[in-house]
């Protein structure tokens, strides 16, 4: 069991920085890759983009857990991240990838120029199991802030492999229950109806989550989250990943 904390000078990534990381988890080993705090991406200088790239290989009966704090991009920042994971059928991977809207205390809300994060999981032999890209930038359809409205955090959690089967089942059940409660239509006595009485006003949920499967026989699960607060995402991650403590020696995000 090995916990690895990634550290950058000054606690952030400067415009034009390019950071590369190679990780190999040997057969039967377990490794946790995390951070000490949010990854700050400083303001862009001209057209310079800050970049991070990780290449990870996960062996047979091995587990890699990637549980960073969120990325926080400052106003005008440009950031691109690529993470490639090479696995075998007996590998296990937990990946959390998330971003906040920026520095709230300075009034910044999705004020960065560009954010792109690509996560690619390949079965040894270059067969793609999972490929996902999140791209946020201002465009003809409005600013990022206009499109995301009140939501301050977006997150993705990926669970793959035999060592995470139990937590996969549990988190799918928990998300289903959580969203059925959040999206339940109000009763006539508590809802706000129109003059015709034919429809009800439903408050915008402060926390949204969805689950889907991928890979052979649904061997992987991906959870997508949008939330109005960073704290609620931390709480969700703490609750859903707490059962990993025996595997990792400590519970994630505590």
Short note summarizing the structure:
The protein is α/β, with parallel strands linked by helices.
Q: Please give the number of β-strands.
A: 17
- Whole-number count of domains: 1
Percent of sequence in beta strands:
35-45%
Main beta-sheet strand count, sense and barrel state: 10 strands, mixed
Mean pLDDT across all residues, rounded? 91
Q: How would the global form be characterised? A: globular
Helix-strand category? alpha/beta
CA-based gyration radius: 20 Å
What does this structure look like?
The chain has 254 residues and is α/β, with parallel strands linked by helices. It has one domain. Helix content is 15%, strand content 43%. The protein is built from four helices and 17 strands. Strands 1, 2, 4, 5, 7, 8, 10, 13, 16 and 17 form a ten-stranded mixed sheet that branches. Strands 3-6-9-11-12 form a five-stranded mixed sheet, with no helix packed on it. A hairpin with a 6-residue loop joins strand 14 and strand 15.
Please supply descriptive tags for the structure shown above.
single chain; 254 residues; alpha/beta; ten-stranded mixed β-sheet; five-stranded mixed β-sheet; globular
Topology:
Layout: E1 2-6, E2 12-13, E3 18-25, E4 30-35, E5 39-41, E6 50-58, E7 63-67, E8 71-73, E9 78-87, E10 92-100, E11 114-123, E12 127-137, H1 144-148, E13 153-160, H2 165-182, E14 192-193, E15 200-201, E16 207-214, E17 220-227, H3 230-241, H4 245-248
Parallel strand pairs: 1-4, 2-5, 3-6, 4-7, 5-8, 6-9, 7-10, 8-10, 9-11
Antiparallel strand pairs: 10-13, 11-12, 13-17, 14-15, 16-17
């Amino acid at each position: 069991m090995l916990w690895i904390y990634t550290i950058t000078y000054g606690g952030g990534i400067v415009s034009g920085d390019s950071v590369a990381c190679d990780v190999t988890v040997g057969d039967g080993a377990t490794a946790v890759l995390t951070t000490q705090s949010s990854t700050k991406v400083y303001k862009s200088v001209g057209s310079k983009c800050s970049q991070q790239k990780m290449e990870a290989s996960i062996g047979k009966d091995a587990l890699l857990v990637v549980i960073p704090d969120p990325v926080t991009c400052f106003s005008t920042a440009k950031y691109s991240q690529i993470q490639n994971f090479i696995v075998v059928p007996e590998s296990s991977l937990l990946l959390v990838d998330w971003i906040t809207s920026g520095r709230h205390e300075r009034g910044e809300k999705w004020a960065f120029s560009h954010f792109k994060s690509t996560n690619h999981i390949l079965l040894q032999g270059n067969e793609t199991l999972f490929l996902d890209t999140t791209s946020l930038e201002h465009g003809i359809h409005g600013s990022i802030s206009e499109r995301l409205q009140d939501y301050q955090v977006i997150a993705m959690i990926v669970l793959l492999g035999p060592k995470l089967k139990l937590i996969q089942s549990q988190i799918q059940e928990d998300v289903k229950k959580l969203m059925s409660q959040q999206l339940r239509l109000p009763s006539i006595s508590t809802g706000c109806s129109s003059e015709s009485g034919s429809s009800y006003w439903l408050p915008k949920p402060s926390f949204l989550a969805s689950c889907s499967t991928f890979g052979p026989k649904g061997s992987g699960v991906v959870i997508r989250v949008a939330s109005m607060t960073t704290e609620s995402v931390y709480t969700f991650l703490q609750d859903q990943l707490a059962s990993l403590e025996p595997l990792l020696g400590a519970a994630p995000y505590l």
